[in-house]
Amino acid sequence: MLTLECPYCGVMADETELSPGYEAHLKRFGPGSTDEQFEAYMFARKNPKGVHFERWRHAYGCGKWFLAARDTATLEVFGTYAAQSSAPPQALQDKIKAKRPDWKGF
Amino acid sequence: MKRYSAFALAREALSNHMGWERAWASPAPRAQYDAIIIGAGGHGLATAYYLGKNHGLTNVAIIEKGWLGGGNTGRNTTIIRSNYLQDSSAAIYEKARSLYETLSQDLNYNAMFSPRGVMMLAQTHHEVRGYLRTAHANSLQGVVTEFISPQKVKELCPILNIDGPRYPVLGALWQARGGTGRHDAVAWGYARACSAMGMDIVQNCEVKGVTSANGVVTGVETTKGYIGTKKLGIVVAGHSGQVADMAGFRLPVEAVALQALVSEPIKPCMDVVVMANTVHGYMSQSDKGEMVIGGGTDGFNNFTQRGSFHHIEETLRALIETFPIISRLKMLRQWGGIVDMTGDRSPIISKTPLGNCFINCGWGTGGFKAIPGSGWAMADLMAKGEPGPLAAEFDMWRFKEGRFIDESVAAGVAH
Ligand SMILES: Cc1cc2nc3c(=O)[nH]c(=O)nc-3n(C[C@H](O)[C@H](O)[C@H](O)COP(=O)(O)OP(=O)(O)OC[C@H]3O[C@@H](n4cnc5c(N)ncnc54)[C@H](O)[C@@H]3O)c2cc1C
Ligand SMILES: [Zn+2]
């Protein structure tokens, strides 16, 4: 079972306490955008076999959305961070790079 | 290839069954083919088979990174039905179902298609309305299906509890000529027939790169070296995004784990397939007597062929409510497969931005039933370079243009 630390309440939460929300850091496009931009926002997903950044909600805890870095090929969790981040914290990126030298970066 | 028959069985018995030949050859890849299919699952093998059978193209290789049929094809719960809502889905799934009816004769291999009937329970008023709508649509589409009463449900499946306290059964969508097949046999039968036509099935050979010149595909880099081809078909289910990346384009696909499990074998107690989508579980009984059980997917990207334990609990909870007699059965085996989910939960059979490179993916949690029809449509597309009527609406540009084939919301079911 996946265990993620909620960055708000500090609880190590089991997967059953969380709701998954798929890919993080999507840029929202709305009226006025091109078809390509809107399609990419709605449907194009990185879906990497490896390092992935995604959204989770502490549904049965504080109720807040947060972000997590996880390896989809091993299920290893690298860390979690606040939903208000536009990119993963540098320290987390360094940690991932040290563990996965082949990783192409965020 | 020696044909399988009752006569062959008698003949081989005389030599203690030592004379059976291998079902398919395992050649080393040649330098160049007219067409290469990546992925020897049911869809890839069926594509190759109909390329040969319907279009006379036999200089074909099927390249598989593991063993043939070892992906989702060998991991699924084999439900076959075609009573979908949208015209384009009903057409391709019904084509597949009708091909399943005669597949064993066609391939000279027992695919064990068992049209025992598939029942999708309606346990909310919303589902009743949804299934009535599907039944009406199906009668316009020529797909034989009907909405049946709770009493008829009980008659067809006496072990089903139709008046559970939470979700009593209000009726069901019933397709009498739906059913199950033997998953491995479908892959093996197609493989044997492809091999007999002179096609090369290359196992333990992973495609690592796709080469092109002037925007047209030229070949693939593999763990067994470079192989040239005039046409390429990508049919790799859970790894579609990865192989599309090698060919230089993106797909609206995410990979998640779907699990299934089987119980210890018991005496025959259920001769139909039951799907209970509100409580989320489905069950049938295999010829060996095991109850074959499946549920929902995990909600996160995953390539490990292993899902979350709590999903098994949820599925079993739902099924114990529906079938109280299974509450003390022991579960024997459990496994997962990586399914490719598209943005509208319908498959993609499409040309791609790379010339002469075609993709077939996105069958997600429900593509076993589609194997013959999908292979038929994909072979047509690869042979002619343009989609025929079965594939036309399943192109990958529908996501940009907003032409979704919204089966997921329409039917409210996983498969
Ligand atoms: C638990 C479970 C239950 C299911 N139940 C049902 C059901 O009841 N009814 C139904 O209709 N459907 C069901 N499905 C869905 C069904 O199994 C799939 O839609 C179908 O089998 C997909 O077939 P495929 O040939 O596209 O993929 P696969 O059988 O997965 O074949 C793809 C092949 O491509 C190979 N490959 C991948 N990458 C590469 C590479 N780089 N190089 C070479 N080869 C590569 C893989 O090794 C694999 O063998 C279920 C799926 C699962 C997991
Ligand atoms: Zn919290």
Please, could you describe this protein's structure?
The complex is a heterodimer of chains A (106) and B (415). Chain A is an alpha+beta fold and 106 residues long. Chain A contains 2 helices and 6 strands; from the N terminus they run E-E-E-H-E-E-E-H. Chain A is globular. The two termini of chain A are 26 Å apart. The model of chain A has no long low-confidence stretch (mean pLDDT 96). By secondary structure, chain B is α/β, with parallel strands linked by helices. In chain B, 30% of the residues lie in helices and 26% in strands. Chain B is built from 12 helices and 18 strands. Chain B has helices at 6-14, 42-55, 87-101, 103-107, 125-141, 150-156, 183-196, 240-246, 309-322, 371-384, 398-401, 407-411; strands at 32-38, 60-63, 79-80, 118-122, 146-148, 171-175, 179-180, 200-202, 207-213, 216-222, 225-234, 253-263, 273-276, 281-285, 291-301, 331-342, 348-351, 357-361. In chain B, strand 13 and strand 14 form a beta hairpin. Chain B is globular and about 65 Å long. The two termini of chain B are 36 Å apart. The A-B interface holds A 1-2, 15-16, 19-20, 22-23, 35-36, 39, 42-45, 47-49, 52, 54, 70, 72-75 and B 239, 241-242, 250-255, 298-304, 308-310, 342-343, 399-401. The complex binds flavin-adenine dinucleotide and zinc ion.
